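User: My collaborator sent over this chain with a note saying "see what the structure looks like." That's all I know about it. Can you take a look?
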Amino acid sequence: MQRRTCPNTGLSLPILGLGCWSFGGGDYWGPRELKDEEAIVKTALEHGIDYLDTAELYNGGRSEESLGKIMRNIPRDQVIIGSKISPANCQPAILIEHCEASLRRLQTDYIDLYMVHWPVHTASIKSFTKDPERIENPPAIAEVYNTLLQLQKAGKIRHIGISNFAVPRMAELPELDKIAINQLAYNLISRAIELDVLPYCEKHGIGTMGYMGLMQGILSGRWSSFDEIPMKRRRTRHFDSRKVPASRTGEPGFEPETNKVLQELRAVSEESGYSMADLALKWVCANPNLTCNLAGASSPAQLIKNAKALSKELEAPLLQRLNKASTPLRDQMGNHIDLFESIENDRTI
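Assistant: Without extra context I'll predict from the sequence alone. Here is the result:
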């Protein structure tokens, strides 16, 4: 598995990381068995995929708990674990408490990469708590950063990261040269970070980690029409919010433009012999400014398929064709990188 390095910190990551959001199961993902998750992790390690990504928010902590149980049978130095703290839990004392709780759930003494899950401000925090004290009195980013430094000096975390930070929020950080990673949504139909976030990260030595590389299965060809896609996966700006009760965007979406990209992806798949999922992963990882790309897996076989897809680079003509097909959608959606909120309620800026 190809590896890339975060310029600021030297953290080396595989180009494909294992997203563990589904671990522990729940309403969003349905039931999951620990033995199946363990088989996925072991298969990942066998294929050089040693970065495992989770968060305290994932399934109410069950993702971390499952990963912790799995790690009892795997030498700690064989994996790189990344986890994330909710912006609602970033008051210094609370942050330390929640980091300790993550360590307990993960059954480890340290977290390799500890990220602030979303920018720490009122518009973001209110998405994760109803506590008026936390919503109305967010800590200054300098306080959050200094607390992370404290945890780092104590050996609780090894690298400091951020997630879903647009340029204005990155610019507020006290020391950009100590930030290892910015984790961001990135895929063939979600290219907003290319417009200013990726260039800013490159300029300041911050690695970038893409998530939702397959857009939660939408780019895999699993569904032949929008109506077949589960409602919970249609809450993004791509879709007409009037048809999706759980959507918070209040926007008409970009369904015709999104459908054009999917149709072209399907056509390229049929002509090239690559599956749609393989093409989508190859396309994401073809971007040299991406340090690591996350993909989940429901089985060892699916993970092996994802790993094999990256054993060969995407041919230039196919890359150019997919770029051409998806650029109009990127430009119409603009540089707004919060897929789940309207431009007015963007939590990333």
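A starting point for your reply to your collaborator: Residues 255-272 form the longest helix (18 residues).
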